[in-house]
Amino acid sequence: MNFGINETRRQFLGKSSTGLGAAALSTLLNQGSTNAVDNSPEQLGMPNLPHSPGKAKNIIYLFMNGAPTHVDLFDHKPDLYQQHGKPIPESFFKGKRFSTMTGNPSGKVMLQPIEPFKQHGQSGAWVSNLMPYTANIADELCFVKSMYTEQVNHAPAVTFFLTGSEMPGRPTIGAWLTYGLGSETENLPGYVVMTSVSKGTTCGQIFYDFYWGSGFLPSRFQGVKFRGGGDPVLYLSNPKGMSRKMRRGALDDLAKLNQMQYQQIQDPEILTRIAQYEMAYKMQASVPELTDIKSEPQHILDMYGPSVTERGTFAYNCLMARRLVERGTRFVQVMHAGWDQHNSITTELYTQCKDTDQPSAALVQDLKQRGLLDDTIVVWGGEFGRTPFLQGDMKNRKRWGRDHHPHAFTMWLAGGGFKPGISYGSSDELAMNASENKVHVHDFQATLLHQLGIDHERLTFKHQGRRFRLTDVHGEVVKPILS
């Protein structure tokens, strides 16, 4: 190769590269800027994917940031009532790691659920009185009561669930899916993120951008965050005096300049730039239609609850999730903070449940009545559970709390080929440790990918000399929960 005196290492490596970037450029040059994104890799996905026919096409992930308490919501343990106020037996925590707030649990006393449990539906699923709407759809749900993880703090645990690593920098599930399978929509992002927090909560968690990042994948696969106020997406509106026709002409000219630059240095991020400009142009028309809920029947709005018309609420975001999936978005990540109840289990837990219970159940019902639940997976859960023992003073009920608990917790799934009306796995008699049919985070991730027709061991990306995957070098598909 003939080196120019001013040629950089980046330019040399770019000119030497082939693969995804070159293939995308070929598509762009052959079809022109206006239609370039329609057939680019983020629409088509990778060759030979899916690996097998999948039961699902989309995922809506209701992530309860801060870790909801399995002990008070879904994991009914009669022994906790008998052990209430008594010190935790050493055999249940010996050798286990807890957060620094707990340290050694010796001497901590057990705390019974703050509200009663009842059995619901033909499945007889145990659900707390705190979750009446979820209880009403118990026969649609697959409860996994034997989840466990190694992470004891929020950010690493959330990152672990979403990326397969506790350290930031890896692609999230949504990025892997849009990279591997592409998107079913040309006018909206394939991966959308929305966040919310209950009003008045004192225990909200921070939403870090890497929770929806693309890691080492091209950045066009990262999640697009829809805001709760103002324009749903920043900088989407044209400046004053700029018509849509003028915007189209400017983008066409800009695409040509970017293509010239790509021919020179072949930096794949230039393709991302072109794709993002095109997607933004299309979203100028598609997002206002998406967010206009005036066409929704009143009985549908009532189903989601009184806050559904208020942008930025969990109920509104759940409705948007349905509308996004309906229009072809592959992965919708709905994150709700406020579950970190170290000293507010008897106060703020009620608010959290009130804000999330009805919309979560409505989403499942709405998808089902529209025929979308069969190929859409709905996931509900947090990064870990909360301790069956008390954090705080037993004499001060208003300040009762529960600490982080990675050793056993509950999640539920609906649709997408998961068996409805079952409870899989279990924790021990004090809800302390996953004991039967244990499901690790990597197992959970492998199972989600499997339902979309992806072999988790074969969806990889080479980075820094090795091939990475969502499940690292672990993970087994949990087949008993699949229909």
Q: What would the keywords be for this entry?
A:
483 residues; alpha/beta; nine-stranded mixed β-sheet; two-stranded antiparallel sheet; 14 helices; 17 strands; 33% helix; globular; disordered N terminus
Fold and architecture overview:
The structure is a single chain. By secondary structure, the protein is α/β, with parallel strands linked by helices. 33% of the residues lie in helices and 15% in strands. The protein contains 14 helices and 17 strands. The strands form five sheets. Strands 1, 4, 5, 6, 7, 8, 11, 12 and 15 form a nine-stranded mixed sheet that branches. Strands 2-3 form a two-stranded antiparallel sheet. A two-stranded antiparallel ribbon has the order 9-10. α9 (244-265) packs antiparallel against α10 (268-291) and α12 packs parallel to α13. The radius of gyration is 24 Å and the shape is globular.
Which geometry do the CA atoms define? globular
Class inferred from helices and paired strands: alpha/beta
Number of domains: 1
Low-confidence stretches: 1-5, 13-42
Q: How is the main sheet built?
A: 9 strands, mixed
Oligomer: single chain
Number of alpha- plus pi-helical segments = 14
Report strand %.
15-25%
For the secondary structure, the number of strands is 17
Instruction: Report mean pLDDT, rounded to a whole number.
Output: 89
Cα radius of gyration in angstroms: 24 Å
Distance N terminus to C terminus? 56 Å
Helix content: 25-40%
